Automatic annotation (TrEMBL):
NCBIfam families: nagB
The species this protein was found in: Piscibacillus salipiscarius
Active site residues of this protein: D67, N136, H138, E143
InterPro entries per record: Glc/Gal-6P_isomerase, Glucosamine6P_isomerase, Glucosamine6P_isomerase_CS, NagB/RpiA_transferase-like
Catalysed reaction, written as an equation: alpha-D-glucosamine 6-phosphate + H2O = beta-D-fructose 6-phosphate + NH4(+)
Job description of the protein: Catalyzes the reversible isomerization-deamination of glucosamine 6-phosphate (GlcN6P) to form fructose 6-phosphate (Fru6P) and ammonium ion.
Gene Ontology molecular function, alphabetical: glucosamine-6-phosphate deaminase activity
Gene that produces this protein: nagB
Span of domain Glucosamine/galactosamine-6-phosphate isomerase: 10-226
Keywords: Carbohydrate metabolism, Hydrolase
Family: Belongs to the glucosamine/galactosamine-6-phosphate isomerase family. NagB subfamily.
Annotated protein name in UniProt: Glucosamine-6-phosphate deaminase
E.C. numbers: 3.5.99.6
Length: 238
């Protein structure tokens, strides 16, 4: 695992975008694994700019989002479907049928997990997976205690995760209680991974990762067993 410390959120976003652009330039058919949340917003802004400046072409690229809330409509402003439209998809030339996000609205969640698994098996492996980091070490919505070989599954979100995500909703009660997420097993099959974390509140988790201990109560530590992971992190803008 390689650690790269940056001095600003801008630098983190630029470094991450440079990596994504490079992967697509080298392989126009690249499969990207995408995350939502606060951290990758700047990365997506930079990708839009790179596209507008003709530095990258998404028309053969395929995307697979890590997760989606259960029980809110795809058109809900806080759904991850909407997030991706708002920050990236509406601005670039990605084909609609190359976009994959778990469907958290379906009546049969187990079948949806199986469908996502079949899709990943057929279209994968993911060439570059982008990850954010939960303050409790979660990746995707794989909360502490999740088996490292878990596949796409339905999770009950922890209080800590619901609280962290409450900033996006009017009240904490509105934050969904469940999500569908790719499992750590899926994430580990990616050819390459970048893990992004910015802010003082993320530093304890980064420090824990640097200590190098692999255990299921700290999901991100699974990544220590992958040989192509780069952690791009920063404490504050200096
Ligand atoms: C989102 C996701 C989550 C976030 C994590 C960090 O798709 O998978 O694991 O990456 O909760 O969120 P932020 O970036 O908002 O701190």
């Amino acid at each position: 695992m390689e650690f790269l410390k940056v001095n600003s959120y801008k630098e983190l976003s630029q470094k991450a975008a440079d990596k994504v652009v490079k992967v697509i330039q080298e392989n126009p058919h690249a499969a990207l694994g995408l995350a939502t949340g606060s951290t990758p917003v700047g990365l997506y802004e930079n990708l839009v700019q790179a596209y507008q400046h003709g530095q990258v072409d998404f028309h053969k690229v395929k995307t697979f989002n890590l997760d989606e809330y259960v029980g809110i409509h795809q058109d809900h402003p806080q759904s991850y479907h909407q997030y991706m439209q708002k920050h990236l998809f509406q601005f670039i030339n990605l084909k609609d049928d190359h976009v994959h996000i778990p469907d958290g609205e379906t009546g049969d969640l187990e079948e949806e997990c199986q469908r996502y698994e079949r899709l990943l098996a057929k279209e994968g492996p993911i060439d570059l997976q982008i990850l954010g980091l939960g303050i409790n070490g979660h990746i995707g919505f794989n909360e502490p205690g999740t088996a490292f070989d878990a596949r796409t599954h339905v999770v009950n979100l922890t209080d800590s995760t619901r609280e962290a995500n409450a900033k996006f909703f009017d009240t904490k009660e509105e934050v969904p209680k469940q999500a569908i997420t790719m499992g750590i097993g899926n994430i580990m099959e990616s050819r390459e991974i970048i893990l992004l974390a910015f802010g003082e509140h993320k530093q304890p988790a980064i420090k824990q990762l640097m200590e190098g201990e692999v255990y299921e109560d700290f999901p991100a530590s699974a990544l220590l067993q992958h040989d192509r992971v780069k952690v791009i992190y920063g404490e504050k803008d200096s």
